Amino acid sequence: MSDSNSCNSRHFSWLMKSCFPNTQQPPPHHPTPIPTTTTISSLPDDLLLECLSRVAHSSLPHLPLVCSRWAYLLDSPIFHLLRIRNHLVCFTLFVVSCSDGALLTASYRLENDNEWNISSLNYPFFENGFRVLAIGRRIYVIGRTVMLRCDTWTGKVVELHGPVNLRKKFAAAVVGGKIYVAGGSAGATAVEEYDPKSEKWRVFNGVRKSSGFGEWRRIKSPPLPAQVRLDSTVRFSCEAIGEKVVLVQVNGCIDDLLRRSGRPERGMKEGLVLVYDCVVGEWSRGVDLPEVIRRSACVCVEC
In what residue span(s) does the F-box domain sit (predicted)? Predict the structure, then answer.
């Protein structure tokens, strides 16, 4: 056999060793790939608003705590419009009363809730009366010297200056996104305007004459007992909620009136809530106010 056809053991051993890795040689360096995942904070404002606007209502109080940017976006009008478009905003009736130096609040969503949700705030500034108004999702509780601004999304409460003139049993309304108060003071003709953007009050000397607003139309009477005479002890508050009108009994007891007049009907003690549907023209009974909420003021908030 020739040398060319013979098997060289040395060459064969070298060939076998080349098939096994060298344990003493350092492993080859492979560059770490840069991650391509995108965090939610890196999104532009329009996409971030789309994501945040779909958060459940119960999680809204936590959004401003993440960062100042999220808190800023939560306050933007676009955020509110997106939640309306996504059907995540509904009309909520808020009722506020003052008892033993504390403000008691109760909220009720006509289409969603089966009972009132109650909470309390320790603010002893409203023993002499107050008015409640809403601008957007914020509720304003106006007293003689102090005003509170309550955010219904975040639960944040801010103490602000009240009207310039000391007032008691005054009238208040929201017109064009501003608050107007009148009456209840020595300067009966002085009307004050509050601008939420500048957080300042301004006094107007004199009242403009009304130019009219349309016509009155009689609707069906609320389903109260026939021929019952409501005296000054029974008072109601009226609020518009979408295409419905809510009539809330904020003071007095109808059953007491029935008892004094010798009527056998019962079941209308205190805190009666009646709902009028403007489309079908019919009244229905809502969930009565909690017993702890008395002498209250009502306001509707779209939140």
Answer: 37-82
